[in-house]
Structure formats: C-alpha cells, structure tokens
Specification:
single chain; about 1050 residues; alpha/beta; three-stranded antiparallel sheet; 31 helices; 15 strands; about 45% helix; elongated; transport; KCL_cotranspt; SLC12A_fam; transmembrane helix; Solute carrier family 12 member 5b
C-alpha cells in the first residue's frame, strides 16, 4: 500500500510472480517472457536517452501490451478438468489454457440462486412461518436478507478494486485485512463451507428417509414414539449420512469435472422446483386444492391415527365407529370408555391449503412458539379441556418435537441466505469478475429475497408433514405433483453438498499455499493435477462431525456462526479501506459507503449472538486463537492490507499526540538507544549489550539499536544493509522488540553523534543511551575509542539524556542464564532523578535477575546524621513500593588524613608529573632506570620497583595558573593501599623544563582520592554482588582532562565484576504518587 511521499523501487527484471514477489507488486501480470524476448522488446534506438534504463524499467508499449493480454486464469474447476484430460492421454505439448468464458448469468447469478434456494427453503421454511408467524418470519427474512445485501455491497466494492485472482472471498478478505485476519476468517469460512456440506447431506438423507423411501430405514421408526423414535431417526441419519458423504468424497476425488457436469442438472432441478411452487400458488388462488387436516377440538391429529376424520360414520343405515374412535376408546362399541378430551370435543376437518383469500394470513400474523411435547393447536377453534384430568393418548396428536423460539428460527433460517459468495468464489472462472460479481450477486439476492418474502399462504407448524399424510409440506403446494418438489429438493441438496465438498478443500489449499499457517502447509499439496487430496480428506473428516450430530436444526446454527463471521469481516474490510482513504482504494462499484458497511458488520455481530450466544463465543474464540497463532508463528506477509493502514494512521496519530509535551513521570519508561560497534564483517562486537537491553525491557519502552559504518553512502551502502541485517538477526535472537538503525559517516565519531541526535521520530525518541565501556582504552591504538566514548557522555549530558555504561559487558548474563541468589547493589551517591531505583526494579522483572535481592547503599558526609538518613531512606523506599535493604556508609575524616600522608617533596613531584605525561601518551613503561627516588613514609612498605607502572599515576592539570604556596598532595591508584608508592623514572630534560610551567591541580587530587576511597568501600561491601549500579561522574568540561576522567572511572570500578554506571537525564523518572 503506497502513501504519498513514499517512493517504492521494484527491480522489474526480477519481477516474476512465484519467485517471492507477489503478483500484485509486478506490472507484468501474466508475463513469462524470457530474457531474449525482453531484449527484443527493448531493441529500439529511438529512445536513446533512456536506453540505460531499459534493463530495469519496462517500455510503456510492452507494459500495456502485457496488461491488455491479461487473462484471469482459473485455478478452480476448469484447470483441474484440463489437467485430468491431459492425464488421459500423453501429449507432447501442453494445450494452452483457454481464458475463462463464464459471464454474469452462468458464473454468478445461477450459482448464487442454487445455493440460496437450498435445503432450508424446502424443508424448514413453512415450519418457520407456522411457528414464528407471518410478522415474525418477515422480520427474520428481512434481517437476514438485509445482512447479505449489505455484505454483497461491501464485497462488490472490494471485488472491483482491482483484479481478483482465483481464490474469491478468502483472497479479498486476506488482502484487505492482512494475513492474521485473513487466515482467521479464511479458516472460519472453510469450516462454514464444510459444515454446510454436512447440512446439505443431512437434508438429503431426511428427504430420502422420510418422504421418498421410508422403508429404507435401518433403525425402524414404525411403532416407536417420543425419544425412541427420535433416536432411531438420528441413527439412520448418521449411517446414511456417512455413506453418502463417502460416496460424494469419492466422486470429488475421482474428478471434479463430473461435479461440474452434474451442476447444471442440479441447478435445473432447483429452478424447476421453484417454478412448480409458483405454479401451485397461482393454481391455489384460482382453485384451492382439497387437502384436509383433521382436528380434535383444536388439537391437530396425526394422519396415521385415522382413516376418516370422524368418530362414527353411517354405513348401510348403521352407525359404525371409525379408526379414530378405536384410537381413543377401549373398544369399538358405542358405549365404550373413551378419553375424556375425546368425549368433550368434536372432530373438525379443515383445509390444509385454504387459499390466499381465506384470511389465513391475518390468523397467523403473530408467532406461536411451543415447548417440546406441547400439542399443535389450531387457532380460532374452541376446545373443552378439564385442567384436572390427566393427559393421555398423546401419541395420537401432532406434538412439537423441538422447543421453538425466535432466536432458534433465526439460526436455522440464516444458512438459506449464505450462498451469496458462490459467484465470488468462482472469480477465477469469470470473464470479467469486476463486472459480473456485483451485478450477479446483487441480482441473485434481490430475486431470492423477493421469493422468500412472498406472503406465506402455507403456515404449517409441523416439520415432517405429520398432519398432511407424511408429505413434504411445501410439496403439497407444488403443481402438477408434490413429487416435483420432493425430487427437486433431493437433487438440489445433493448438488449443494457436492459443491461444498468441492469448494472447501480448494479454499483450505489456498490458505495452506499462502503459508500463513505453518501447520496447514501439508494440505497445500495434492495430486499431480493439483487436486487437493489431503485437504479433501480433512474436509470429509470435519464434515463427518456434522453428520454425527445428525440434526439439521443443530448443524444449521454452527455454520451460521462461521458465515456470519466471514460476512462481518468483509464489511469491516470495506469500511476500513473507505475510511483510511488509501490511494489504492478506487473501486469501480460506486454504490457503497462506510456507514452501510458498519451497519452490515453490526447486523452480522448481532445475528451471531441472536442465533446462539455460546456458538458465537466458540466461533470468536477459534478465530482469536488462529489470529494469535498466525501473529506469533505464522509467516510474515506484506499484502498492502487495511490493518497495516490502520497501524500507520494510529502511529501517526499517536506520534502527533506525543508532540504535545513530555510524558508525565508516571508514564516515564526507558526508551533506549543502544550504541553498538561492528567488525569488518559487519557483525556486532558486543552482543551482550542486547541481552542487557532485553532484560531491561519490563518497562515496555522503545528500543533502537544503532551503529555507524565509516565511508560514504554511495560506496558503502552494501555494508550498511549487511550491518542492518546483522542487527536485526541479533535482536531477534535476544528477543529485543525494537528497531535497528545504521548510519554512514566519514568517521565513526560523527556517525555516533548522528544517531544520538536523530534517533527516533517525533515524540517517540530515546531518552536513554546505552554504550559499552571501552575496555582497552589505555592502549595507543584505542585512544580514539575512549575519546569517542567521552564525547558520547558529553552529548548525552547536553541533550539531557540518561546514560547507561555497563563495564565488563562480556561477563553479564545471557537471557538463558538464571541467578538463583545474590544481590543487586545500588550505590546512591548523588540524586539522578531516580534512575538508580528504577533500573533494579526493571531488571528484577526478568527471569535472569528475578531471584536477586536489592540493596541500596548511600554515603554519609561529615555533617550528616547517618541514623536519620537510613530512616528517611526506608520511608522513601516504602512510598516507592520498592523492597530493598538499606545501609548508610560513613566516609568521614579520610580526606585530611590522606593528604597529610601524601606530602611529597618537589623532586618526587617532578617525577610524578613526568609519569602523567607518559601515561597520557599510552601508559608506556619507562625503559630507563630511575635517577631519583621519592622519600617514602614509614607506612609505605615494600620495594617500589616491584609495583607495576600502570598501578600508580598522579593527576595534574597542565594549564593550571593558580600558584600554590605549598607542595600539594599526590594521589596513587594503588590497589586498595593509599600509602604505597612506586618509582618513576625521569625522562628527557624537556620534561623538567615543563615542570617549571606546571602547577598541580588540587581538584584532580581530591577527585582521585574520592574515587579511591569509594572503590575501597564498594569493593568491601559489594564484592560478591551480581551487579553494582553506581552514579557516573560527569565528564570534564575541557578535553585536556579526558585521560584523567577515564582514570577516575577505572579507579572507581576497579575490582568489581559487573558494574553499571548510570547518569540521569536531568528529570525525575520515579514518583511516590499514584
């Protein structure tokens, strides 16, 4: 999906669909031209100005020619038929596949008609009207038809927004909503189509066993009543359903071309049945048929319980009792003891089809919902019932065999309108899908809605024709014979079942071949001709679940859920594309609006819960699980979908909101810029930096991993891409959620500065920088490295960014390690806004540090009350909701005593200044033997020559101009012993002359003393700590003291294994308030 201001470059030389490039990103839609053909296309000298670009950019003439010759090759039935034909006889060359020739009528309109006029219309429509009433049935039909019409409008807009390859509805939804939604909805649509096959098969068996050949029942129903008869019927459905399912699956497996050839026959049966019903309606209006129904009182009698609708008849001037009498009385005699209700009520015979002018519509205007086992009573007839008398002979009446209510009728009826996607599913077989799908689908919905909304002149409340001699209820209206409807509906359900078993495996195969759901990839394979064998096997297995349920009224709500969910997301896709106004959204179908799509989506969601709230929850749960599975484990696909557009719009909106001001302290979290270096192979040199970053991400903040490549953009772009891939791979390995950024600069110092300055976007910028300690900074070849490090410290200070400097990063734990015990020690020397308190809390949220305990140390000065400090700190931690042990360390009197011990003479001062000069040039050892020895105090035991040169150094400033009246104290960085000195050799005479112009800087002496004393205390207290967090001193204002600054930090952290130096960003990051 392209947006204004975004430039996209595609190498058309490599643009071959199937090579990892989606066909929608390629201008040559149907091109398979060879390099020779392409060179011939560009073999023109009339465009010499552009001849250098002909290898990468197509000529307009060739592009238009390719587009004009485009044909939407089917991947459906036609392709499989030709593959099968090719298998029948070996042919030297493959026959060119013909372009699809199906138009609107045969390709969309009639298939939709066939699927909509299905099993529910023939088997349940009249029962629904009898139970729900004309008004209630009209509401149900209106809601369902409105839902499908709105969905068809949205689908038409999507279908006309570009070429729709074979794949139909799944292709449209997945490319509009992305792989996650597309996969979830595709699976739901697949399950709905599969259970639809089970529903059609059950309807086929119901027609066969009840209306055509009742004698074929394996489990005999004759003589059984109530639950026993119901169980026997369900068992018959299971046995015969499994047989029919196996036969249909075999037909589909052998060859889909037979299914396509039979489709026209089945379609003709549907049309003939509808015409027969309408012919019967016309005949009924002129001459109502004689179709009696026997009523006792107001209770409808079973047709098998009587031969004549009368208690007694006159035969040869003699009163004779009938079969009905014998059903309710204990003998045939007129003085026999009979059922009380039978004695108190008369027998009435009414017309089952009274005609349009009989007033039956007004009588049955409102619903008559029944509980299971209740009598089916005729409205308007009197009934004499003794409430105290027991009910008997219930097997002689027509009883409600299912508890009915409005929502049940909605769930049962909705599958009868779910054939609206039959045309779009054949998009690969259509001559012009963009024209045929909207016209054919909307015309089919209009036709079927008109038919089913016709005023119901038959309002029977029994499902299986118990009151009309066991005939198919709607068949009683057909002309010229009820058998037209019986056989028409039988073949219609068979055809619909075959179509479902043909379409569902191909839908699953399309999902599997997209690769968005890894565990379904096996179902993308099939026979040599492309037949989805494994998908067909899975489809038949799932369909068998519906067969085992065996009840048409129980299976119908299940598939209603899946189809409604599919329709809901079609409406959502259209609404999102319309509201986002993406440049590529230009449908040819103009009669759509986002409000209509939202209305359709709302209707779908409402109908899901109206039909069955628990089925709706289960269906949504399945879709959610699939969505999450694809999100975490599925293949990443970029289809230019609407969800990506939502993400872009939401990101833009959020970034604009972040610009309104800095975040509140309660919302502060570390947004870390991790500065790493790469080697010559563009591999990260400090991978443990990303491990530490991952362990700090309990704050869920932004992470940017950045590095700099030395060179120019034109010459080193390849190295940049390689470095970026290396960063991304390492981030994925360390499970760091964030972004990578690589910049090219003439030198690494400027590149790092660019990252610090320009990282992030708008208000979503880093507030913390993490950089590793330059461990080899004393070696001459690494001098520039530590100078770059100090510049980063200065830049973060100026930019008010927090700074994290892990020292000895290689010793930090990886994400796979676990500390079973230990401490995280915080040395809180100065207040840094709370960073030192927040970081251990975030670390302890990670499994690596979870079992470590937190200790906080702070330093008391001469005038501080250490006892009160500890109490205040405990209260402060309590309000911060942080559990930690507290200790106050007193450092009083050390400075004056140390200065007194370190009084030295001028000779010793000269030697130490020379040592500083050499140290700043690389800490090179002296080769000359010392000519002067300093005077050591009694406390300075040991031979000075035994001490290594890099363990002692004196800190002065060469530019100090303030004179001193006495010789200042010097400071060594000896290991834990302030009083031990060592011998320094004299150097050249120039160094002696430099001494005349140099004055010692007492501030540096004090700094070194502080570093040494703090290190002594920290080492004593935190030697065994798993991690030590410490305030990082600020850098020197001028660059002359950079070496001294590094030496301060070395002394401060000497002897500690893992140290994290922390500098605050100049703002509070933690608060005690809620």
């Amino acid at each position: 999906m392209l947006h204004p201001g975004v430039f996209t470059f595609v190498d058309w030389r490599l643009c071959v669909p199937g090579d990892g490039i989606p066909k929608e990103s390629c201008p040559f839609i149907n091109s398979a031209a060879t390099d020779v053909e392409k060179s011939q296309q560009y073999d023109s000298k009339s465009m010499a100005l552009f001849e250098e670009e002909m290898d990468t950019s197509p000529m307009v003439s060739s592009l238009l020619s390719t587009l004009a010759n485009y044909s939407n090759l089917p991947t459906g039935s036609k392709e499989h038929e030709e593959a099968e034909n090719n298998e029948e006889g070996a042919r030297p060359s493959k026959k060119p596949v013909k372009a699809p020739q199906l138009g609107t009528l045969m390709g969309v309109y009639l298939p939709c008609i066939q699927n909509i006029f299905g099993v529910i219309l023939f088997l349940r429509m009249t029962w629904m009207v009898g139970i729900g009433g004309v008004f209630g049935s009209f509401i149900i039909v209106f809601m369902c038809c409105s839902t499908t019409m709105l969905t068809a409008i949205s689908m038409s807009a999507i279908a006309t927004n570009g070429v729709v390859p074979a794949g139909g509805s799944y292709y449209m939804i997945s490319r509009s909503l992305g792989p996650e939604f597309g996969g979830a909805v595709g699976i739901c649509f697949y399950l709905g189509t599969t259970f639809a096959g089970a529903m059609y098969i059950l309807g086929c068996i119901e027609i066969l066993l009840i209306y055509i050949i009742p004698q074929a029942a394996i489990f005999k129903i004759e003589g059984l009543e109530g639950p026993e008869a119901e169980i026997a019927l369900l068992n018959n459905m299971r046995v015969y359903g499994t047989i029919v399912l196996s036969f249909m699956a075999l037909v589909v497996f052998v060859g889909v071309k037979y299914v396509n050839k039979l489709a026209l026959v089945f379609l003709a049966c549907v049309i003939l049945s509808i015409l027969a019903v309408y012919a019967g309606i016309i005949k009924t209006a002129i001459e109502p048929p004689v179709f009696p129904v026997c009523i006792l009182g107001n209770r409808t009698l079973l047709s098998k319980s009587y031969d004549v609708c009368a208690k007694i008849v006159e035969l040869d001037n003699e009163t004779v009792t009938t079969k009905l009498w014998r059903s309710f009385c204990d003998s045939e005699s007129l003085n026999a003891t009979c059922d009380e209700y039978f004695n108190n009520n008369d027998v009435t015979e009414i017309q089952g089809i009274p005609g349009v002018t009989s007033g039956i519509l007004a009588e049955n205007l409102f619903g008559n919902y029944l509980e299971k086992g209740m009598f089916l009573e005729k409205r308007g007839l009197a009934s004499n019932v003794d409430p105290d008398s027991p009910v008997s002979n219930t097997n002689r009446y027509v009883l409600a065999d299912i508890t009915s209510f409005f929502t049940l009728l909605v769930g049962i009826y909705f599958p009868s309108v779910t054939g609206i996607m039959a045309g779009s599913n054949r998009s690969g077989d259509l001559r012009d899908a963009q024209k045929s799908i909207p016209i054919g689908t909307i015309a089919a919905i209009t036709t079927t809605s008109t038919v089913v909304s016709h005023p119901r002149i038959m309002t029977f409340s029994f499902r299986f024709g118990e009151g009309v001699n066991g005939n198919l209820v709607i068949g009683t209206l057909a002309w010229p014979s009820p058998w037209v409807i019986v056989f028409g509906s039988f073949f219609s359900t068979c055809g619909a079942g075959l179509q479902s078993l043909t379409g569902a495996p191909r839908l699953l195969q399309a999902i599997a071949r997209d690769g968005i759901i890894p565990f379904l990839r096996v179902f993308g394979h099939g026979k040599a001709n492309g037949e989805p064998t494994w998908a067909l096997l899975l489809t038949a297995s799932i369909c068998e679940i519906g067969i085992i349920i065996a009840s048409l009224d129980s299976v119908a709500p299940i598939l209603s859920m899946f189809f409604l969910m599919c329709y809901m997301f079609v409406n959502l896709a259209c609404a999102l594309q319309t509201l986002l106004r993406t440049p590529n959204w230009r449908p040819r179908f103009k009669f759509y609006h986002w409000a209509l799509s939202f209305l359709g989506m709302s209707l779908c969601l409402s109908l899901m819960f109206i039909c069955s709230w628990y089925y709706a929850i289960v269906a949504m749960g399945i879709a959610t699980c699939i969505y999450k599975y694809i999100e975490f484990c599925g293949a990443e696909k970029e289809w230019g979908d609407g969800i990506r557009g939502i993400s872009l719009s939401a990101a833009r909106f959020a970034l604009m909101r972040l610009e309104e001001g800095p975040p509140h302290t309660k919302n502060w979290r570390p947004q870390i810029l991790v500065l790493v270096s790469v080697d010559a192979e563009q591999n990260v040199e400090q991978p443990r930096l990303l491990s530490l970053t991952s362990q700090l991400k309990a704050g869920r903040g932004l992470t940017i991993v950045g590095t700099s490549v030395q060179g120019t953009f034109l010459n080193n772009y390849t190295e940049t891409q390689k470095a970026d891939q290396s960063l991304r791979k390492l981030m994925e390995t360390e499970k760091v959620k964030g972004f990578s950024q690589v910049v090219i600069s003439s030198n690494l110092r400027d590149g790092t500065s660019h990252l610090v300055q320009s990282g992030g976007l708008g208000g979503l910028k880093h507030n913390t920088v993490m950089v590793s300690w330059p461990h080899n900074w004393k070696q001459p070849e690494f001098h520039q490295q530590f100078r770059n490090f100090i510049e980063v410290v200065r830049e973060t200070t100026i930019a008010s960014l927090a700074l994290l400097v892990p020292k000895n990063i290689s010793s930090y734990p990886s994400n796979g390690e676990r500390f079973t015990e230990g401490y995280i020690d915080v040395w809180w020397i100065v207040h840094d806004g709370g960073m030192l308190m927040l970081l251990p809390f975030l670390l302890r949220q990670h499994k690596v540090w979870r079992k470590c305990k937190m200790r906080i140390f702070t330093v008391a000065q001469m005038d501080d009350n250490s006892i009160q400090m500890k109490k205040d700190l405990l209260i402060f931690l309590y309000h911060l909701r942080i559990d930690a042990a507290v200790e106050v360390v007193e450092m009083v009197g050390h400075l004056s005593g140390l200065i007194e011990k370190l009084e030295i003479d001028s000779c010793f001062l000269f030697l130490q200044i020379q040592s500083i000069t050499d140290s700043s040039r690389g800490s090179i050892r002296r080769k000359n033997k010392p000519t002067l020895q300093p005077q050591h105090s009694k406390e300075e035991g040991g031979s000075p020559a035994d001490k290594p040169d890099d363990k002692a150094q004196l800190i002065y400033s060469k530019k100090t101009t303030t004179p001193s009246s006495h010789t200042p104290a010097a400071t060594w960085t000896e290991k834990k012993d302030a009083g031990k000195g060592r011998t320094q050799s004299a150097s050249t005479p120039e160094a002696g002359r430099d001494f005349l112009n140099m004055k010692p800087n007492q501030i540096d002496v004090r700094r070194m003393h502080t570093a040494m004393r703090l290190n002594e205390v920290i080492t004593k207290k935190s030697k065994e700590a798993k991690l030590v967090l410490l305030n990082m001193p600020g850098p020197p204002k001028n660059r002359v003291g950079d070496e001294n600054y590094m030496e301060f930090l070395e002394v401060l952290t000497e002897g500690l294994n893992r140290v994290l130096l922390v500098r605050g960003g100049g703002r509070e990051v933690i608060t005690i308030y809620s």
